[in-house]
Amino acid sequence: MFYNSTRNSDVKVKSAEAITQGISSEGGLFVPESIPELSLADIKAIGEMSYADRAAFVFSKFLTDFTDAEIHYCTDNAYSTKNFESESITEIAHLFDGTYMLELWHGPTCAFKDMALQILPYFLTTSAKKINLDKKIVILVATSGDTGKAALEGFKDVEGTSILVFYPEDGVSPMQKRQMKTQEGSNVGVCALKGNFDDCQNGVKTIFTDDEVKQTLENNGMMFSSANSINWGRLVPQIVYYISAYAELAKDGEIELGDKVNIVVPTGNFGNILAAYYAKHMGVPVNKLICASNINNVLTDFINTGVYDRNRKFFATVSPSMDILISSNLERLLYLMTDRNDAVIREWFGKLAAEGRYEVSDDVKAKLSDEFCAGFCDDKQTKEIIHEIYEKYSYTCDTHTAVAVKVYEDYKKSTGDTTKTIIASTASPYKFSAAVLEAIEGGKSDIDEYAMIDRIAELSDIPVPAALADLKNKPERFSDVIDKTEQKKYVLSKLGV
Ligand SMILES: *Cc1c(COP(=O)(O)O)cnc(C)c1O
Question: Which of 113, 177, 280, 431 is catalytic?
Fold first, then answer.
């Protein structure tokens, strides 16, 4: 299996190169040259495997330059009860008849990004070895909250790597901030930026593709790689859990093998839902992919009209990990939907960079509405649905997951569709305790974040995750705050080059 770039189809690299490079040199994203197919018999067999083996099975189709031993080294280290509080790595909760919550947050940082970021360091160091790179891998991360902590946990003290994380100073929850500021590890750095997530991400992208910076690193035996969801090594682990969930439901007799399901995903950068799209095109029977956004609803408008327009007000919401106006992974979807037309992708994403807006062709519009539905809700509706789910089903869900539930309920009402449905549950409710508690109890409380955790523990039957319980006693290690114009200088000085 080779990988092409969305902005130059002539680029052709193996997965080890795609993963170590992170992003193609002309700014495109790596995409496998074809989508491997799974039969229903394969899916049935997957249902009998452990999660680590399910993952290894899927990776063997995409990372064909890895040996079986290398793949198992990665999956066995990442997907074990060392790192996850669930024997089965993910859990499926039954919300109401035919609606399943795929809980992806039983990892060390209590958000779904652990599913990919626990394995990415193993993919990266294994890939680097395979292509005889003896450079130190420098990971730069822009985070809207969850990626940063998950990447820090994944990479901390991994030999041959160092990691630097930027987050928007006022754009993450107090708990997320505390998780990052107290990060342990000898190869980690954390810095707040005066700006929003897009400022962080644009800065990181610019530094990443800056020839002068690249040369400086090269001269010092270092190279950049990316832990953001632009890296194929982030995306491929996410495909696994959709296949796994479908296989599990079939095994449990909740669905018949071959039945279609809907998949609802609370979306920001479009990574998680793109993984569901891949799972569908590999052979998981899917009816609709439902894209749920908060009030930063650029994707809702895009899927409904074919016009992507980021020229709009940016809102800070109670689901901060979805406060995004540029959804990087959409580029991969559009590359596939234009039958891998790199020229068109260059044109559209050139327009996005220059004018903040592009409109796709009628053909792509038709494909979008065939495969996707999209909706959004605001903070008030998010809290209302948390309250409703808690009262009706005794289930406590976080703010991001709540957006997905609300959009799904709206979808069901407007379409009458009764297809069984998997909703991606992307974070533990404890991680966004202030908003969750306010929603459940119907008013703001003035207790601190730790008392809130205790309060949620009283109200819900979900145990407090160990990683959050420990947080209170950890010392803060990182307090830098910089202007976005200083980002490049900061990176070079932190690397000591
Ligand atoms: C990152 C994140 C999302 C959005 O996922 P994308 O892959 O960026 O679309 C949703 N919910 C939570 C809790 C997240 O951390």
Answer: 113
